[in-house]
Write a structure and sequence with these properties.
The chain is an alpha/beta fold. It folds into two domains: 246 residues, Rossmann fold (3-Layer(aba) Sandwich), CATH 3.40.50; 151 residues, Restriction Endonuclease (3-Layer(aba) Sandwich), CATH 3.40.91. Strand 13 and strand 14 form a beta hairpin. The radius of gyration is 27 Å and the shape is globular.
């Protein structure tokens, strides 16, 4: 009766446990899966996940995110560490990776909250990083990865953090000593403010109900530890409403109740199978996601079409710069040679040459370097209806530019032995590169 009642109330629930001492599995059964991104957790039931990794957060119930960790994660040999209080400046390549990952994680976070999950964010310094765009350097706001538009400013100097609010947040505030100085204050908080600093009572933390999910901003202590982790897990469990944590003394593992050993063995087997299956599912999702993005190079329009072009050139090994040249073009850099690519998706086909020339002029005036021009063309129609626009290809060839269809670019990505070979063919082309198949069956 006791065990059946416990099961009905969700007490005996299995979740992913990491390898560790026996009590990690024997006495503390996590009822929720929690990921930490950039947050230095010491708790064995909190899984570290890199912001830049392909690992999805959708398999988790809650995420603890510290954007301050982005600088370390994206720092490379070319990062210019800030001096005199300036924020570090990421290299062009690192900036491109970061901005792409932010767009990807933003979509994932929106889906995560849409499933009723919980995200805890430790607000970072207002300007933790600077990044390159195509012709400028801008301050990067890590909050762009979240669904809301949030702006941060410097908090009041040397002001202690004070809590004003009810449960379950009060229990958390009482368990965790607040930092003596918050890293940031919110210019305008979109939810219920809970943490304040300074005489002006600047908001430095609070709660946002993002239906049906939960978004929290908590000013955590400078040095995280087991006590902070336990308080965060307890808060997550109370917000979730179904969480329950068994935390028995270590010695009780030596006294199993009848049937416990067999149940533990079954649980270990299931956890191993779950880990293997989760990895296979994530790999399958990633492959399908990549294939759908490739498909947009001949079936997509607008931003999806340009994003597919960007992905393919990055797969070739080139550096892709997107930005103020225009919203229909990207600049490609490969081994000190430049290519300006304009995406023509079925609109403005008649003035494709002029549009490309305008982008090339803007590139030369901005970077004081010459570049080759290319048009990637796709009408977003079934390939049987239109493959090659011979008239457009002839006009571009006469002006010394390259012409490829979206299917041509996909073919180079899948048929060439290397990205270098594919890039060489595009840079050398006048009009449509020679040797590309004309039949749809050979292109796909």
């Amino acid at each position: 009766m006791i065990l059946s009642t416990a099961r009905r109330h969700g007490i005996v629930v299995a979740a992913r446990c990491r390898k560790g001492p026996r009590w990690a599995l024997e006495n503390r059964i996590a009822v929720m899966r929690v990921a930490a991104i950039g947050y230095a957790s010491v708790h064995r039931s909190i899984d570290p996940v890199a912001f830049a990794s392909d690992q999805s957060i959708l398999d988790y119930d809650a995420v603890i995110w510290s954007p301050a960790g982005l600088e370390t994660e994206y720092r490379d040999a070319y990062t210019n560490v800030g001096e005199d209080g300036a924020a570090p400046l990421l290299s062009v390549a690192a900036s491109s990776r970061l901005l792409q990952d932010v767009r990807r994680r933003r979509q994932e976070i929106a889906r995560f909250l849409g499933r009723g999950r919980i995200i805890i964010v430790e607000p970072p310094r207002p300007v933790p990083l600077r990044v390159h765009i195509i012709e400028d350097v801008i301050d990067f706001n890590a909050m762009e990865a979240l669904p809301q538009r949030l702006r941060l400013s410097a908090p009041p100097p040397d002001a202690a953090v004070a809590f004003r609010g009810g449960q379950p947040f009060r229990a958390f505030a009482e368990r965790v000593p607040a930092r003596t100085r918050a890293r940031a204050a919110f210019d305008r908080f979109p939810g219920a403010p809970l943490f304040f600093a300074g005489r002006e009572q600047a908001v430095v933390g609070g709660y946002v109900y993002q239906h049906p999910g939960h978004l929290l901003f908590l000013p955590l202590p400078e040095a995280a530890g087991r006590a902070v982790d336990d308080a965060l897990l307890a808060l997550i469990a109370r917000i979730d409403g179904a969480g329950f944590s068994l935390d028995l003394p270590d010695w009780s593992a030596d006294y199993p109740v009848p049937g416990e050993r067999a149940a533990r063995d079954r649980l270990r087997t299931l956890l191993t199978e779950q880990e293997t299956l989760s990895q296979r599912l994530e790999e399958g999702r990633r492959q399908i996601r990549d294939m759908l993005q490739l498909k947009a190079v001949f079936a997509g329009r607008g931003a999806a079409f340009l994003a597919a072009i960007t992905t393919i050139f990055q797969a070739f090994g080139a550096v892709v710069l997107s930005g103020p040249l225009s919203d229909d073009s990207v600049a490609i850099e490969d081994d000190a040679r430049f290519l300006v690519v304009v995406a023509i998706d079925g609109t403005a086909e008649a003035d494709a040459v002029q549009r490309l020339e305008n982008r090339l002029d803007r590139f030369r005036n901005t970077f004081f370097s010459d570049a080759k021009g290319a048009v990637i063309h796709s009408r977003g129609l079934p390939p049987q209806q239109a493959i090659v626009d011979d008239a457009m290809a002839a006009r571009l060839a006469a002006a010394g530019h390259a012409y490829l269809t979206g299917l041509d670019l996909l073919h180079l990505a899948t048929a060439e032995p290397s990205g270098r070979t594919a890039l060489d063919r595009i840079f050398a082309a006048t009009g449509r590169p020679t040797g590309l198949p004309d039949r749809i069956e050979d292109l796909l």
